[in-house]
Write a structure and sequence with these properties.
Oligomer: single chain
Helix content: over 70%
Structural class: mainly alpha
Distance between the termini: 34 Å
Length: 194
């Protein structure tokens, strides 16, 4: 694993994508459990993002590039699932800042991974800032979830992780890993399918 861990750790932290062996297996088991629970069978969290996507599509004229729309859609649905709030419910500037930081951190991490053991050579100045922005955004949701006992269903995914990990930083890191998987792979699949 070595080089992948070093290349992606600034962005993903101690999550499933930078782990191997028993740590990876533990993360896989840990992350699978919340998806099996019945409270994720409720699709209400998807209505806003679906409405946003349909509104954008119906108001478009001519040829529409679906890939950016799918990336926004999957960002909204994945954040709703794992953070308890879709990113659309964050004010516009923060939403755009988060999406830009996430995109940039993902891109640079992928480039660093291709450099294998020489990942340290490529470390643009904005990379650490983008990684920190993503982590700060996720930290806000973890803190909100751990202090909001009255709305536990909204934050069930975070609370499930916290009950096992007992460390808000590890919870945040796993959430960022799930966000990467849920957003990028799903958006690409939707783009390729159409």
């Amino acid at each position: 694993m070595g080089s992948r861990r070093g290349a992606m750790f600034p962005f993903l932290g101690e999550g499933i994508f930078v782990q191997d062996g028993t740590s990876w297996k533990h993360s896989r088991d840990l992350l699978r459990r919340p998806f099996l629970k019945a409270h994720y069978q409720d699709l209400k969290g998807f209505s806003g993002p679906i409405e946003n996507l349909l509104r954008t599509l119906t108001s478009a004229n001519g040829i529409v590039d679906l890939q950016p729309l799918f990336f926004q859609f999957t960002l909204e649905t994945t954040t709703a699932l794992i953070f308890g709030h879709a990113v659309e419910h964050v004010d516009g500037k923060n939403q755009d800042d988060f999406a830009s930081a996430f995109d940039y951190a993902s891109l640079v991490s992928a480039l660093r991974s291709r450099l294998t053991d020489f990942h340290w050579v490529y470390n643009p100045s904005g990379y650490r800032d983008a990684c920190n922005s993503v982590k700060d955004f996720a930290d806000g949701f973890v803190k909100r979830a751990l202090s909001a006992k009255e709305d536990s269903n909204r934050y069930a995914f975070i609370e499930d992780l916290y009950s096992e990990l007992q460390d808000p930083v590890l919870v945040r890191d796993q959430l960022v890993n799930v966000l990467l998987a849920g957003r990028d792979t799903t958006a690409c699949l939707l783009s390729w399918a159409l």
